[in-house]
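Predict the 3D structure for this chain.
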Amino acid sequence: MINEIKEESLEKIRRKSYLLNIRNLPPIPNVIIRLSQLLDDSMTPTHEIGRIISQDQALTTKILTVANSPLYGLPRKVPSIDFAILVLGFEQIKQIVIALSLIDTFKNDNSKFWNRKSFWTHSFITALLSKAIASDTGYPKTGEAFTAGLLHDLGISVLQKYFNKEFIEINDLVTSQTMSFHDAELKVLDLTHEEVGRILCDKWNLPNALGESIFCHHKPSEAKENPELSSIIHLADYATQVLDLGKFIWDENFGLDENVVPLLKLGNKEYLDKFLESYKSQIKQQLEASIF
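Done. Predicted structure below.
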């Protein structure tokens, strides 16, 4: 029958259209456009990149905090933006700038169901863990993993800011009916925060692998284009919960997709647990120097 099972409901299509056409939904920040153009040219002088970044003191401070994180793995202290560009390289700096600039775009005020610091601290720890796991498992694009980790829950921030009525309804369902956030999102919006994040990546013409990793960070084995990146983000997100460090309430009862174990060549579940435990002291250090 024609009207039996549809891939997407009309309501979901309507909400996707609404999301894409929100007039005050911010465009990609200008700093990303300017720096991406310069960083894509290998002949651009380091001091020119440093000059543009240094015009934004808050961004400068955050980049240096990232570069000096114990989870980022650099062997020496990074004292300046020019030195950060030198030791990290253009691609790493580009990924950090993209992620941090988008965070500033979605700064939301605290409310009954929203703690901005808790949310972005979780995102930051997930980003640093993603970068570290990528490096330790041999994934070549560690900067890409950092960006995907930082933005994996971006859809939650968007729901809180642009669908606030529905955001409150979702939280009320979770607290009053012991419903999971995933089920509450579908009941109220017929969209999950993973889908919202993917839609925004498409709107901003961000790389497909980034959008897929955001969409699949709870179910990485369903990723088609880059399951390795999705698995890294999933594992980093999972680590914040099992290590009880930098965790976020929307990830309560986070279930591990055990397909990530062979995909990332981590042996078995016992080895995985030890692997994640090895990051614990570094996460504790980082939490003492949160940038949010």
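The two ends are 52 Å apart (CA to CA).
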